[in-house]
Write a structure and sequence with these properties.
Structural class: alpha/beta
Radius of gyration: 22 Å
Shape: globular
Order of helices and strands: EHEHEHHEEHEHHHEHHHHHHH
Strand content: 5-15%
């Protein structure tokens, strides 16, 4: 029976220090596997690494919703694929299913280290992602703590959150046009729900790190809490590196790169013809691992048309209610609306019943 005893280092803080470590270690010749709950993170990281080290372009593999349909052989037999295609950086998202497993190479580990980046999801998912590589290579884990900085717009202060999101109140009129929310105090309701959503997200992040550490210890792994800024500075000193990109600069580059990706994805969503398909077909597309990203964006657009009939799905509106939060924002708001307006809940259930798959003829 295989025994796994990992040496794990965990920490939060600024992600720019952690990204700096990834880039530094690649420059030092390490082969890395980076499992992440954030697809936007690995997409942005890939672009940043290629920008810094263009020679690695062909030895970087990213497995996420955009790439998995083209990498079927890697997903079905990763060891055989890796033996033929040397990889310096393997980026994994939750899109990779639980059956994906990289066995222990008897001659040499495929990867020198895992560097996980977790921002959401549950502890079980984190453990599964850390276990994709069956070797005992060291594991480093960055866990995003959104409420770490007091007074930050990303913290749990509702005042700061309300100020940051106030512009969303104007968009609520679109939802009213769909018959989803009464006009009375609609702006106040929208802003308060947004504050609740962000605060809940921050609190969840705090507990996420605690639960993951407890679970790793329970399974017998050695866990050490670290400051990633200190780790990076120490490694740069040990390797006598003088040309590393400052973490602050990396943070700026990452923010711009991620925003570019969001805008690209949102443009695909905006251009998608969601009315060309029906709801059952859209649901099937979203649940299929072989669906391409453009198909999934079309499916999302179809469901948004169905969920918000009458609303004008502008690029700005799509960015705010879907793309920025991967659709979670709208789901959280809907739950709160239903709790506040029970009559609306009854009507919505009846409305959904009329649109359920069994009431559709054909796809």
């Amino acid at each position: 029976m295989e025994k796994f005893h990992w040496d794990v280092r965990m920490g939060g803080g600024s992600s720019s220090h952690y990204m700096g470590l990834i880039i530094d270690r690649l420059k030092q010749g390490e082969n890395l596997i980076v499992p992440s709950t954030s697809q936007k993170f690995i997409q942005a990281l890939e672009r940043m690494v290629i920008e810094q080290m263009p020679e690695l372009r062909k030895s970087i593999v990213r497995l996420d919703a955009k790439t998995t349909p083209d990498l079927h052989k890697l997903l079905t037999n990763p060891d055989e694929w890796l033996a033929k295609h040397p990889v310096r950086l393997l980026l994994l998202s939750p899109t990779v299913e639980s059956g994906f497993s990289i066995k222990l190479n008897p001659i040499k580990h495929w990867f020198d280290r895992e560097m996980a980046y977790f921002t959401n999801l549950d502890t079980r998912t984190h453990i599964q992602m850390l276990s994709r590589d069956r070797s005992n290579c060291p594991r480093d884990i960055f866990v995003l703590a959104k409420g770490a900085e007091a007074g930050s717009a990303r913290g749990r202060d509702p005042i700061a959150l309300l100020q940051m999101r106030k512009d969303l109140a104007n968009e609520t009129s679109l939802l009213h046009g769909a018959g989803r929310i009464p006009m009375t105090s609609q702006g106040d309701i929208w802003n308060r729900l947004d504050a609740e959503f962000s605060a809940r997200s921050a609190l969840s992040s705090k507990y996420m790190a605690e639960y993951l550490e407890l679970e790793l210890i329970k399974w017998g792994h050695n866990v050490t809490q670290v400051d990633w800024e200190e780790v990076r500075l120490q490694e740069l000193a040990d390797n006598k590196t003088n040309d590393a990109i400052p973490s602050k600069e990396l943070g700026v580059i990452f923010k711009k790169t991620k925003q570019t990706i969001l805008e690209e994805d949102n443009k695909i969503l905006f251009d998608a013809d969601g009315k060309a398909i029906k709801v059952p077909q859209a649901q099937a597309i979203l649940h299929s691992s072989s669906s391409r990203f453009e198909q999934k964006q079309q499916a999302v657009k179809c469901l948004l048309h169905d969920q918000l009939p009458g609303a004008e799905l502008t690029e700005d509106f799509l960015m705010k209610v879907h793309t920025e939060h991967n659709g979670l924002y709208l789901k959280q708001c809907e739950l709160s609306w239903l709790l506040q307006y029970p009559d609306l809940a009854k009507n919505l259930e009846r409305w959904r019943g009329d649109r359920s798959p069994e009431n559709h003829t054909g796809i």
